[in-house]
Amino acid sequence: MHEPERSTAFDTRAVTAGEKALAHEGGYGDAVSPIHLASTYGLEALDPSMGLDDVDPDAGQYLYGRLSNPTRRALENRLASLEGGEHAMAFASGTAAIAAVGLSILEPGDRLVAFEDLYAGTKRMFTELFARRFDVEVTFVDATDVDAVDAAIDERTKLVWLETPTNPLLRLCDIEAIAELAHDRDALVGVDNTFLSPYFQQPLDLGADLVAHSTTKYINGHSDSIGGAVITDDAALAEELELTQQITAGGVLSPFDSYLTLRGVKTLPLRMRQHESNAMALAEFLDDHPAVRAVHYPGLESHPQHDLATRQQSGYGGVLSFELAGTQDDAIAFLDELSEITLAVSLGGVESLIELPAAMTHEPLDPAQRDAIGITDTLCRLSVGVEDVDDLRADLERGLERVSAVESVAGGE
Ligand SMILES: *Cc1c(COP(=O)(O)O)cnc(C)c1O
């Protein structure tokens, strides 16, 4: 199998890992992986002793596009290298990647312990698919509290599912502490690392058993592909994911999306550094602004888990959220005024995107549920892009002038 390439620095591996050797296989020495569109591959001779398991893409053997594809393989090898894992499997979406994890590990009667503050689609999958259809007992806990996770894990618990930081309030959980107590009871720990990417957080190093990504976000980074991946060091789990999920369930990433993602991830380190420095500058600007009631960004010292963020992450990321003073009408007026920052769901692309969770991503929750998790009517989530930070600040400033609370504060009471 593939050996993780960790002898070179992250920035180098982001550009070349997994790709160079494969690019030479076509015979032209392409500097980048070609998009291999073939759905099937001609065999030189029939060898009846060769089973599916013996077909090794890393040795240049291919049989059929769902089983393996050179472009997808190059991406998988690169993602394994970047997360510091042995094996990676790419799927048709982040959602498909997370479903593949659950379907590889859980059986009816098992328990799944999950952070209550999850990506809404993942939460829906756990309740509607795993609990309702597959009879898995799903327990949501406040994973910011290690003791709460500890109390929820029992001998039936096979998987603990974490996201850190969470969306949209940027809450963190302590991966290392949770992995330790989960392993004491033989449960696996999975971390959705979409928000930070392997550039800022390496869950496998912190003791997690597997990492999942929506590559749609930072890894591809250009808002032009939907994809997902799972990375693990666990050979048995990797085999299960490949055989029962990629090959048998079939939700693999297409060659074209593999190519785009392979191309996008080359600049992951550059983008992440710029996302973060822009996000930090905007968090500080918003924090000082009279029209802003609260800013949630792990890079601010006022963030309740700033110390954990500093210890567990190598950066604070590019997503922040903030609550405007005033009403939802003020928030709508603010959003309406923005011209550089696009009103849209999703995150992690080079362009800045803003959304109002109460009316968009978290609208399906009823107001009481939103209140319970701290999503107010004026909470805005900003995925800070890589544009010039002064232009972004000016855009926000123009929008904030539309918040009626500013006049009363600025005018003095
Ligand atoms: C977007 C997202 C997902 C889902 O990924 P898709 O590629 O849209 O299926 C899962 N987790 C997190 C944290 C996300 O942001």
Characterise the protein shown here.
The chain is globular and about 75 Å long. It has 413 residues and is of the alpha/beta class. The protein is built from 16 helices and 12 strands. Helix 13 packs across helix 15. Strand 5 (188-192), helix 8 (197-200) and strand 6 (210-214) form a beta-alpha-beta unit. 49% of the residues are buried. The mean pLDDT is 93. It has helices spanning 10-16, 20-25, 70-83, 94-105, 120-131, 146-152, 175-184, 197-200, 235-249, 255-265, 268-287, 306-312, 328-337, 367-373, 389-400, 405-410, and strands at residues 87-91, 111-115, 137-141, 157-163, 188-192, 210-214, 228-232, 292-296, 319-324, 342-343, 353-355, 379-383. It has a 7-stranded mixed β-sheet, with helices on both faces. 39% of the residues lie in helices and 14% in strands. The site of pyridoxal-5'-phosphate (PLP) has 16 residues, from helix 4 and helix 5.
